[in-house]
Design goal:
The chain is mostly beta strands. Helices cover 0% and strands 47% of the residues. The chain has strands at residues 2-4, 11-17, 29-38, 41-51, 55-59, 66-71. The relative contact order is 0.14.
């Protein structure tokens, strides 16, 4: 998935949703990078890591500082009696 900043078209974010193999334990994984295009040069400003069903973090490649930008909301208290429905369908 490619996301372009409409206010600054030179800022682009590419997110890769990784496929899970038959025997892989890595499921729901996503990776990506945020970069700035300066002519033909690509300057990576941030990395994106996480699992799309749990939490997503942005990592500063220079300092290695990790910031969680999204966390999955907890299930409702009576989730077992909701027949698999989520907050969106209730």
């Amino acid at each position: 998935m490619t996301i372009t900043n409409q206010n600054r078209p030179n800022e682009i974010c590419k997110v890769n949703f990784e496929r899970r193999g038959w025997f892989s334990k890595e499921q729901f994984k996503l990776t990506g990078e945020v970069y700035y295009m300066d002519g033909k040069n690509k300057q990576v400003t941030h990395l994106i890591e996480g699992n799309w069903n749990e939490k997503v973090s942005i990592v500063d490649p220079k300092s290695g500082q990790r910031t969680v930008v999204w966390t999955k909301a907890p299930y409702p208290a009576n989730v077992d009696s909701m027949y698999g429905m989520s907050h969106f369908s209730l």
